[in-house]
Fold this sequence. Notes:
alpha/beta; Aspartate Aminotransferase, domain 1; seven-stranded mixed sheet; 14 helices
Amino acid sequence: MIPFSPPRIDQKIIDEVTDTLRSGWITTGSKTKRFEKELTAYTGCKATLCLNSATAGLEIMLRWLGVKEGDEVIVPAYTYSATANVVVHCGAKPVFVDVLDDFNIDPEKIRAAITPHTKVIMPVDFGGLPCDYEAINAIALESQNIFKAESKEQEILGRIMVLSDAAHSIGGIYQGKKVGSLTDVSVISFHAVKNLTTAEGGCINLNLPAPFDNEEIYKSLCIKTLHGQDKDALAKTIPGNWRYDIVEAGYKCNMTDIMASIGLVELARYDNDTLPVRKAIVDRYQVAFEKFDWAELPVIYTAEKTSSYHLYPLRIKGVTEAMRDEIMSIIFTKGVSVNVHFIPVPMMSFYKGMGYDVHDYPNTFFQYSREFSLPIFYNLSAADTQTVIDAVISSVEAVLKKYGLNMMLNVLNGSAA
């Protein structure tokens, strides 16, 4: 069976993790701090905080801004549940909006959804393709006229904050700049299936405008994400520096040096090794499927954007959700793992119970119902890629042939297909 997205674990990673284990220092320490500095340089942001997940990063930034009950956060309906869950955790209301045909949030739908209660816009870089940040940032600036500040941080910002869920998109480029430096704050995931992994983990890229001091915010977030303790374990190793204080009721979501060890190796080879390999796989898929009328290819490049090649979300024209599921089932029988990204959040039981209905976001459902994602990972060989391609083509054509005959019969009988 060809897997969907296993992590790359090679001798370089094993050696770096072993070095950390032998050092005797396995929690947050010098390697985590080095990883943060290297991520800051790589993305071009102003400061980076590494944590145990991207989800934690999103929630911490909402809480830093003072998002609370009665507030609203705009998110795309087409995303993973984490994007909306963190809003609920803060007591605020997720305001879902529809997406464009490239799966990314529709800026005009954002504009229409803004109210005096809106505190944050949370765009999601679907599959690694950056959103239209020029438009989104402009909409946030326009919000000054109706924005109602209710915390010190909101007062300083004076407008809606843009908090990018960039879980998929490290290495993506928009208008010549890398993801992480495109808006106020970006949060990247290093989960096991991501392009750049630390097993679990994520980071916050701070890029807030003046008069904010991003380094000072970084220091305050270090405290907030470690129980509100004003010294971490590394700082307390200085002789006589054992005494600490708890200055707030903080959280526990720091990254460890074991995780950072993996990340340091992965980041060092990301642009010159990982991304080119993923690009080659995506390019092979594009060439293979572009000749078929039934294939709707994902947007990978535009004049302004380059994806990080995290996902290859293929859509099949003219199929229903059930037909898509049948295609996937056949592909699995051919020894190829595929996935769906994502089941839209308003379709989930919890959110349906809150009154959300996916039919209020028609393009989200339309794109989801026809989509499945193909394997992309570093060790996917050219031969395996061809196996994937062959499995997809034969499976799609089998289902289209089956239902094409059924639809013809329905038309002849005068009934709906």
